[in-house]
């Protein structure tokens, strides 16, 4: 939560700030969902698969919910932060 408060005070490109916040929220949501799947469904996800899941979740949220044009999937999957 401290990072969210710090980021909200950040003055700079508002689109970049919004995208960084979405990545943070997607990370929290993805970890929570993977944890619940493990606890309640007994499914195991490797760390690499978990990271890929979170990257795809953040990309989808930014692309389709933010109504913003971002880079293609290949560039995003290699380095999301450099694609901001």
**Average pLDDT, to the nearest integer?**
82
What does the radius of gyration come to?
A: 14 Å
Low-pLDDT runs of 5+ residues are: none
Give the SSE order as H and E letters: HHHH
> Structural class of the helix and strand makeup?
mainly alpha
Q: How many strands, what sense, and barrel or not for the largest sheet?
A: none
Distance between the termini: 22 Å
Principal-axes shape call: globular
Q: Give the percentage of residues in beta strands.
A: under 5%
Helix count from the secondary structure assignment: 4
Helix content: over 70%
Would you report the number of β strands? Answer: 0
Count of discrete structural domains: 1
Describe this structure in words.
The protein is mainly α. It has one domain (15-83). It is 73% helix and 0% strand. The protein is built from 4 helices and no strands. It has helices at 2-9, 14-41, 47-65, 73-78. Helix 2 (14-41) crosses helix 3. The two termini are 22 Å apart. The mean pLDDT is 82.
What's this model, at a glance?
The protein is mostly helical. Helix content is 73%, strand content 0%.
List keywords for this structure.
globular; 84 residues; mainly alpha
């Amino acid at each position: 939560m401290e990072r969210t408060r710090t980021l909200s005070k950040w003055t700079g490109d508002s689109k970049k700030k919004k995208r960084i916040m979405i990545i943070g929220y997607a990370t929290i949501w993805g970890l929570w969902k993977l944890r619940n799947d493990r606890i309640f469904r007994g499914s195991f996800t490797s760390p690499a698969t978990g990271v890929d899941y979170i990257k795809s979740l953040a990309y989808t949220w930014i692309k389709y919910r933010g109504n913003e044009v971002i880079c293609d999937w290949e560039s995003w999957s290699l380095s999301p932060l450099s694609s901001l």
